[in-house]
Amino acid sequence: MAAAAEGKFVWLETLRTARKTSLVQDGRRKVHYTFPDETEMVEEYDVSSGELLVRKWKKRSSVGRESKWEYEIANFTRKDNSKAFQWRIRNLPYPLNVYSVTVDEDKYSITIRTSNKKYFKRFHITDMERAKLNLEQSAISIAHANNTLIITYQKPSLILEQEKLVRQELVKVKSSRDGDVECKPS
Question: Which Pfam families match (predicted)?
Fold first, then answer.
């Protein structure tokens, strides 16, 4: 548990010390982070609910070239709610009993397989990796409806606490409705 708590506070400190800009636009609060290594992260929150809608990353290559944005959370990747991480994989017509969703031996990734060998996917929950928390099989649930497989992973209490602390930090960041406001690390 001590290692998990350490990881949690390392991520929070990383966010606190990053350069931040914030903008409210179209019902979303957009926060742009720039970290010391020039890696960028953008998060978009629903203004009324505070729900995290998008998290994307841009890293510079070893020769300084900009890369494309990589989505960690978005409409077509991961969609979280207040208590769980959730994925919706569309166009999977097989019945629920065909799917197997398991935590891998590395304890940081989840694998989806079908018994008919028609589908295979492995993915990570980067929030859990950043907090150095192992995934647990008992936290996974699955459902299937309208050719969509829905995978839900219940957030552990340490992640819920971390998200609460991040929201408290974001209250300190001033937002503009007309343009970006540069915010110094707190």
Answer: DPCD
